[in-house]
Design a protein that fits this description.
heterodimer, A: alpha/beta, 2 domains, four-stranded parallel sheet, two-stranded parallel sheet, B: FAD/NAD(P)-binding domain, Rossmann fold, 18 helices, 29 strands
Chain lengths: 205, 630
């Protein structure tokens, strides 16, 4: 385990940096090409380019082909939030044979161009710094494997109203044992208290 | 309802509460409290003899407390499961129920609540909504005027299974009302109570009006509304039908209801926007369409389940558009109105959607989780260096994932139990633990890059992944603009925000530092935030003692729903910097640096840190060179 955590490793780093325009979401506020030029001068960066949509098939293909063509062992994608597309780019680099934990994202959309539309110069400086920080992190990143955990194939639904009943039946009909927990003495929730329901006026129970 | 009872793979546990949820995706341990019913479920045949024999009557929640039930009861005749309970709080122990039950011997007063533990792979939360109590709106007289009732009370009075067998009567004189008013948006779209729309009330009042009109075409009904919202399939047509039936619609929220004390008739005072004039109209009965609000115990459930709440109190989904059924915790999903007011078609759809999301996990033998766990360098642990493990890491861990079998053996992380918050890493006084993918070297390298150019102008913002990073995302998504001098850095939890990081930020000459994470009740790691908060408080005191200008180190708890707060906090921090004369700021930064260096004396000994520092010097040079060229 300690070889995983004692970085940096001795291998020669070859970082590829991809600056996404996200159409005009990023490209409308800053010029991604300026970030590309900036990234080209950072240590270990052997390839830097912009792409109209990094998450699109064409963008992903570019990254995957570059990994092979430039023999990249780290990838930085400056685009949107990790909450949005980290799984996308992890999968993409993984398909090209790179460990998914050797890809790092810089959030230059939600946390940059979308928040600093009034300050294009400031946004550009920030996009550069965020990209540089992602490049810096990649130097100390190591290959990691996802941890596989066993799954108890049993569900619990908390709340026996119409949503809970619907969920329980769908799970059970797929063969999954389901415990439906209801705090009141009967299931049914608010729905059971209603007299007919809109718009079809059928009864509720 | 009966389908659920009939389906052999659905185990209905009514009268049961969730006490505790532990574990993680695929491996939850849920503690349930099965409340004592004082009736043996297997023996009760639902005949109801006990209820008939019971002499006690108390209000029935199911009938909105407008009709009684017995102390031996089921809430309604179609209850599922059809098992009676004895309400011991109101029982007078006359034992007439025992007598009536006879040979079945289903009643057992010695029962106690049962605590059971269940192993569960995935959880769907469908806890629904509560009803706004309109008695706080004194202008409508609910609770004072007998003929002002809520829409849910109306549901029961108008229901063939309700206490009047569907005969709608006025509470004041038991007469059938001939002239009725419905008032929409009672407590909703009202900034005093709930600013949001309750989603289904427009359709709901139209439905009730149509039902009444169908039963008696002569009844006169007016619906007072602000806007009529009928966006789903078939809804607008339903609204048209109501108008064709002669139901009146009057735009404008009533300001006051007064009562004739003799007849108990009501006068609704409103501005009719269509007519452009104020109106006062007399009615036999008024129904208040009360707002849908979070369940009274929603806060409690939020902490039991460790899921965050949006402003307004509803459970907060992972992503409102892309992952609307997912909670931020892997393996926990939402369905129905617990996540926001929803009508029946949407709740049913969400139930199915949540089931589909959950079944991805439940149909798998194994599920993958992130390997961002803690790892110990045994040679650095105090057990190795001093022969005595200090145990601070084990105390910090919210999951009991660190095992110290004996003081002379170094701490060990039980990987399967580790959730990757990083609390132990930041707490370890020996720097003997790290977190994969969030090592000190990685964070340090990022910090150096972010502060390479004009650090004194920068606000370095540490954010936790789940909440404040989400808040920053939301600030952007909502286009709440804030200073572009912010430089954000993400770790999984505020518990990971090491004092060394903060010292290093000021050693590098940062203008300001934000230390942010979730609110205590929202923490993704049970008690991670508390650990982060305690540390932040110590740092705050220390910087105060060092006479740092207030606001240059700021601690804020910002949820993923608080984009506006994230933007505001950053802008306020920018103002602090703007208000400081340049010389004063520079002097303060320089004054702090030696003290920070002193405190960081041991930091380069952490594996990887010296390398990160060396590398960062080259990187910082490259960054400034590149910027100069540009």
């Amino acid at each position: 385990m300690s070889d995983l955590i004692n970085g940096p490793n001795d291998e020669e780093l070859r970082v590829g940096v991809y600056i996404c325009h996200c159409g005009s979401n990023i490209g409308g506020v800053i010029d991604p090409k300026e970030v590309v030029e900036f990234a080209e001068g950072l240590p270990d960066v052997v390839r830097a380019t912009d792409t109209l949509y990094a998450c699109a098939d064409s963008g992903q293909r570019l990254i995957k082909e570059d990994i092979k063509k430039y023999n990249l062992n780290r990838v930085v994608v400056s685009a949107c939030s990790v909450r949005m597309h980290e799984p996308t780019f992890r999968a993409a680099v993984s398909e090209a044979g790179l460990n998914p934990f050797l890809m790092e994202m810089a959030n230059i959309r939600e946390q940059c161009t979308w928040a600093h539309g009034h300050d294009r110069e400031g946004a550009l400086e920030k996009a550069k710094d965020l990209t540089a920080a992602a490049v810096a992190k990649t130097r100390f990143m190591t290959e990691l494997d996802m941890i596989e955990v066993p799954v108890t194939q049993k569900a619990m639904v908390i709340g026996g109203g119409v949503a809970g009943i619907s969920a329980s039946l769908d799970l059970a009909e797929q063969g999954i044992e389901t415990i439906l927990v209801e705090k009141e003495p009967t299931i049914g929730g608010v729905m059971a208290q209603l007299n007919k329901t809109f718009p079809t006026m059928d009864c509720s129970i | 309802m009966v389908d659920a009872a009939r389906q052999p793979r659905v185990d209905v546990r009514a009268f049961t509460e969730v006490e505790k949820v532990e574990g993680f995706v695929g491996n939850f341990k849920v503690t349930l409290r099965e409340k004592a019913k004082y009736v043996i479920a297997d023996r009760c045949n639902g005949c109801g003899d006990c209820a008939r024999a019971c002499p006690i009557e108390v209000p029935n929640y199911f009938e909105m407390n407008i009709a009684p039930r017995k102390a031996a009861y089921v809430p309604m005749s179609q209850s599922v499961p059809l098992i009676y309970s004895i309400d011991l709080e109101n029982c007078i122990h006359c034992y007439k129920c025992v007598e009536a039950c006879g040979a079945l011997e289903a009643i057992d007063f010695s029962q106690e609540d049962k605590i059971v533990e269940e192993d569960i792979g995935a959880i769907i939360v469908a806890t629904g909504f509560g009803h706004f109590d309109p008695s706080v709106m004194v202008e409508y007289g609910y609770g004072r005027f007998p003929n002002v009732i809520t829409s849910m009370e109306m549901e029961r009075l108008n229901n063939s299974a309700g206490p009047t067998a569907g005969n709608l009567i006025r509470p004041s004189d038991n007469q059938n009302p001939q002239k009725l008013a419905f008032i929409n948006c009672v407590g909703s779209r009202d900034k005093r109570y709930n600013p949001s729309c309750s989603n289904f009330c427009c359709m709901y009042s139209i439905k009730n009006a149509v039902l009444l009109k169908q039963m008696n075409p002569d009844v006169d009904i007016t619906i007072y509304y602000m806007d009529i919202r009928t966006p789903s399939k078939g809804y607008e047509e339903f609204y048209d039908r109501a108008r064709e039936m002669g139901i009146h619609f009057s735009q404008g929220r009533p300001s006051l209801i007064t009562e004739d004390p003799q007849s108990h008739n009501l006068f609704v005072h409103a501005e009719d926007v269509g007519l452009g004039q104020n109106t006062i109209k007399e009615y036999d009965m008024v129904m208040l369409n009360q707002a849908a609000i979070p369940q009274p115990d929603q806060d409690h459930m939020s902490s039991v389940l460790n899921v965050a709440q949006s402003p307004g109190g509803w459970f907060m989904e992972y992503h409102p558009k892309l992952r609307p059924m997912d909670s931020p915790t892997d393996g926990i999903f939402f369905a129905g109105a617990c996540q926001g007011p929803k009508d029946i078609p949407s709740s049913v759809a969400q139930g199915s959607a949540a089931a589909a999301r959950a079944s991805r996990i439940l149909h798998s033998e194994q599920w993958e989780i992130e390997p961002t766990v803690a790892v110990v360098w045994p040679e650095r642990c105090s057990a190795t260096t001093r022969g005595q493990a200090c145990g601070i890491c084990a105390k910090a861990c919210p999951y009991g994932a660190i095992s110290i079998t004996s003081p002379e053996f170094p701490a060990e992380v039980i990987t399967a139990k580790c959730h990757g918050c990083g609390a132990c890493v930041a707490e370890c006084p020996e720097d003997a633990i790290t977190q994969l993918h969030y090592t000190d070297a990685q964070v340090l390298a990022q910090m150096r890059a972010l502060l390479a150019d004009k650090p004194e102008e920068k606000i370095l913002a540490f954010r936790c992944h789940w909440c404040s990073y989400g808040g920053a995302d939301l600030a952007g998504t909502s286009h709440f603009e804030y200073t572009a001098n912010e430089r954000g850095l993400r770790v999984m939890c505020s518990a990971r925000m090491d004092t060394d990081f903060i010292y290093e930020a000021y050693r590098l000459g940062a203008g300001a530092v934000l230390y942010s994470g979730c609110h205590p009740q929202d923490c993704h790691y049970i008690t991670g935030q508390l650990i982060g908060a305690k540390r932040a408080e110590r740092l705050q005191k220390m910087f105060h003692r060092m006479e740092m200008t207030d606001g240059r180190f700021r601690v804020e708890w910002i949820s993923a729903a608080e984009g506006d707060k994230y933007a505001r906090v950053l802008n306020e921090m920018q103002i602090v910097l703007d208000n400081m004369p340049q010389d004063a700021l520079k002097a303060e930064i320089e004054k702090l640096k030696p003290e920070m260096s002193k405190r960081l004396k041991k930091f380069p000994n952490v594996p990887g840190v010296q390398e990160a520092m060396d590398y960062s010097d080259t990187l910082a040079q490259a960054i400034t060179d590149q910027k100069e060229t540009a």
